[in-house]
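# step 3/5: fold
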Amino acid sequence: MKQVCIIHGGSTFESKNDYITYLQALELDYNRLLYRPRWNNWLGETLTDFEVLLPSMPNGSSAKYNEWSIYFSKIIPFLQPNAILVGHSLGGIFLTKYLNEHSNIVHFKKVILIAPPFNDETEESLASFRLPDDMSRLASTADEFIFFHSRDDTVVPYTETNKYLELLPNAQATFFEGRGHINTPTFPELLDEIKK
């Protein structure tokens, strides 16, 4: 059976103190506490002819690249060579960095990155998730790279995807209007791309 592995987003901080300061200043919005359907669960319900893996990466609200890397290395043996990887937001830059570092170990059919940052830190720090200067090994880790981003994304500027396209000239990108950071209940374009 075909596989899709989705790596969710998260937040990261330069230090534990920065994280504590963030928590102290955080103002909760009641509506964000309510259940909201998300496209990743919708995909799991819709892709009945795929195994959809939805791992919970460690400490998503104060993520550390090293911890995510250790955990993802334990997932790799379960993935088939024709697996499709999907990374949203911080999950996208994580996959990019991880694949570049492990280019001699892993190769996938397709990597789909949704609203991934590319070292832009105007809104939030990327801390340990920052990409290295040498990203030359990334292209060899998948047959295809696909990007989705909305031009009105207030979390990760859509121009970050253009930086990936410079790095991966054979990649394909779709830009939307009015989808924000793409935390939508459904995602038909992603579904179509996975089924191709």
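# step 4/5: annotate
The two ends are 15 Å apart (CA to CA).
# step 5/5: archive (pending)
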